[in-house]
Amino acid sequence: MDAARSPRITPVILAGGAGSRLWPLSRPGRPKPLIALSGKESMLRVTASRVVDPKRFAPPIIVCSEDIAHAVEAELDDAALLILEPEGRNTAPAIALAALNVEPDALLLVCPSDHVIADEAAFLAAVDVAQPAALEGWLVTFGIKPDRAATGYGYIERGESLGRGIFKTASFREKPDTATAEGWVAGGQHDWNAGIFLFRAGDYLQALGAHEPKVLEAASKAVSAQRREGRRAWPDSQAFAASPSVSIDYAVMEKASRVAVAPVDMGWSDAGSWDALHELGPLDADGNLLLGDVAAPESANCLVRGERVKVVALGVRDLIIVATGDGVLVVPRGDSQKVRDAGALLEKMREKK
Amino acid sequence: MDAARSPRITPVILAGGAGSRLWPLSRPGRPKPLIALSGKESMLRVTASRVVDPKRFAPPIIVCSEDIAHAVEAELDDAALLILEPEGRNTAPAIALAALNVEPDALLLVCPSDHVIADEAAFLAAVDVAQPAALEGWLVTFGIKPDRAATGYGYIERGESLGRGIFKTASFREKPDTATAEGWVAGGQHDWNAGIFLFRAGDYLQALGAHEPKVLEAASKAVSAQRREGRRAWPDSQAFAASPSVSIDYAVMEKASRVAVAPVDMGWSDAGSWDALHELGPLDADGNLLLGDVAAPESANCLVRGERVKVVALGVRDLIIVATGDGVLVVPRGDSQKVRDAGALLEKMREKK
Questions:
Q1: CA–CA distance from B175 to each of B156, B168, B268, B335 (Å)?
Q2: pLDDT 10s per residue in chain A (353 long)?
């Protein structure tokens, strides 16, 4: 299709996640979107730079907490609006805040700011594929072809084809057990839910009102009473506090009738754990992913990362070693899902001091 | 014997070692004697506090390099003299500098400043045992009963008894192979050479002149021309540079005729590697030695140490993990002898930057 003749899309970048499994790099006040996981640019900057083509995209709306607003602005050359969530209430209310700050027929592309997309051209092509459906009132989600029976993701089951590479969704299913996930992967009808969505603001709000009216009501009141200063907007905190804390998947996508999925193969990773990052590589000849001022003689299949600190991993195998100037993590490869608790443990140690 | 009626002993504390196997805690400018390996007091302070009884000991002489002189003074409440070696030339010249700065009949107790002695009473009792022999002109060394067939130490073979717990030495033998070490340990006639000596200054210098005259000549000239300021003495660097670099064992103890050994069981460790320190403990119920702001859930048989940095070791086994604010080491337990090269590697990385 001819992007120049279509209405421009407004990216809504969600920058609220903590990334607690990425301690010690992520931590309160320095959440995952602000980390340069690849060692160069922050996840947020990488996310924003994917949707920067002015023919296709309007300047983005960022939803984040106030304590990182300054850091977020420093990462972005151009943002239409920073919506400062009074508190984190999960994605359904956060997206409602954005949708209520634009015209009802504005097309919103909701993007988490802490995922990796290796093939940006494929991503943009999928957005082009999804756009006509969104303009017809579909709530479109993007489905990632699973390459393993992951149990930590949500899955989307494809239903009937809507043509042009889009399918009506048959069901949304949260984190399955291994056997179920294996069946889905073998069946070929399920995709991972990447948390990326394209829809008109009004269509989202209408579905939200139908299925989670308390969220819509709270967000509407919060935006009606919001304070605005330059590019920053502060929705009313008291009104927003009345919203249930609920994900867009649970609140809307699993329940609404006009929900579609656009399958896309774009080298996606949620980059949600050190293991996921090790898989992304690039690995050296010994299977090591080395980042920063590190040395790993006689070591294999390790992720070794040093930020403002030198790290020597000497003759070790299958370890994740991440060090900053004030925190060090060592965990076997494959166990990095456990890090969330470790980070909490350390924060507790910090408080005691 | 009645210590009060004997001449007081002058401790000579050698604080020249780098301890390069203890990276990242030890490093240039912060050698092992200045590290609080037990987490509380520096090795140097602990060493000095062993020989502080004024009935037995005169204030100590410290031999060290000038770049750590200030740090050394800060560690010691009372030192007679800091002899600042112009350069490290191993122990024979260093001890000669001390011997030339006292009267010939002064009794010198030469102590490395980077070893652990758990049973200080046993150590002091051994000094009492050795003192009469030293006053009779013997060069007395202290022998540690081996508890394993270590190949990294020197061994002293006991010869005929001189009575009162002292033996003439039959031979000094440097680092043996494993089979030889096993034979010695089984035979019961060999002790480890701990590098601790008691002798009169004049007896040492006489033996040094007989067997390594160039060392004596260089040290004598260096002390004749030494500059003195307060408690600090600077032997002449040009004169000292002419000395061969040689250990007291090789220069004197292996060659002199009146050499004796006082075996002593005093919980000695050279604390020369992270593995040696792990063995010293104290270990928790999971076999972990944890020092500093660290957590090791589900981990076992590890040494985890954090200095000015928080460390989480999550579900790992048999690892040594040592972190400071600017360096991190991870190495399997049992391999910490390899750390010397790692430290060198890192220093090289540092220079390149």
A1: 11, 21, 18, 18
A2: 444 446 899 999 999 867 678 888 887 778 889 988 876 899 999 999 999 999 999 999 999 999 899 999 999 877 779 999 999 999 999 999 999 999 999 999 999 998 999 999 999 999 999 999 999 999 999 999 998 888 888 999 999 999 889 999 999 988 899 999 999 999 999 999 999 999 999 999 999 999 999 999 999 999 999 999 999 999 999 999 999 999 999 999 999 999 999 999 999 998 888 998 998 888 999 999 999 989 999 999 999 999 989 999 999 999 999 999 889 999 999 998 888 776 666 666 655 44
Beta-carbon separation of A331 and B309 below 8 A: no
Which of A313, A316, A327 is nearest residue B309 as measured by Cβ atoms? A327
Q: Which residue of A has its CA nearest to B343?
A: A312
Q: How far is A310 from chain B (nearest CA, A)?
A: 5
Residues of B in contact with A315 (CB under 8 A): 331-332, 335, 338
Question: Which CA distances in Å does B178 have to A299, B143, B188, B335?
Answer: 27, 19, 16, 17
Interface contact flag, B328 A312, Cβ < 8 Å: yes
Provide the whole-model pTM. Answer: 0.84
